[in-house]
Amino acid sequence: MGPVPGWKREADALFVRVGFSVDDLLAWRVTRCVDADPSAGVEVAYELIDAIRSSGAFDGVHLIPVGRYVEMASRLERGGG
């Protein structure tokens, strides 16, 4: 990532897309935790959100839980999200 252009610094909000390494995702998938627990991805997403929140560097996240909306909402509520 490079410097933020001036016109973006004047914006009311700045959105960035979090990228994942495909190798890291494949390594995580190989652990078969999704096979054992279909909601395992909810916990991974929560941990990422919690780390972003704890950093204090961002105002929030835009989350699209697709088929795990209820599980994600419940996890965020349990974690103080």
Features:
single chain, 81 residues, mainly alpha, 5 helices, globular
Task: Give the gist of this structure.
The protein has helices at residues 6-9, 22-30, 33-36, 40-55, 69-78. The chain is mostly helical.
Structure report:
- The chain has one domain.
- Helix content is 53%, strand content 0%.
- It is built from five helices and no strands.
- It is globular.
- It starts with 5 loop residues before the first helix and ends with a helix.
What layout of secondary structure does this protein have?
Blueprint (H helix, E strand, L loop, with lengths): L5 H4 L12 H9 L2 H4 L3 H16 L13 H10 L3
Helix pairs in contact: 4-5
Characterize the overall form: globular
Number of helices: 5
Share in β-strands: under 5%
Mean pLDDT: 79
Name the helix and strand elements from N-terminus to C-terminus, one letter apiece.
Answer: HHHHH
**Nearest-angstrom radius of gyration?**
15 Å
The major beta sheet can be summarized as:
none
Distance between the termini: 28 Å
Note poorly predicted spans: none
Number of domains: 1
Judged by helices, strands and strand pairing, the structural class is mainly alpha
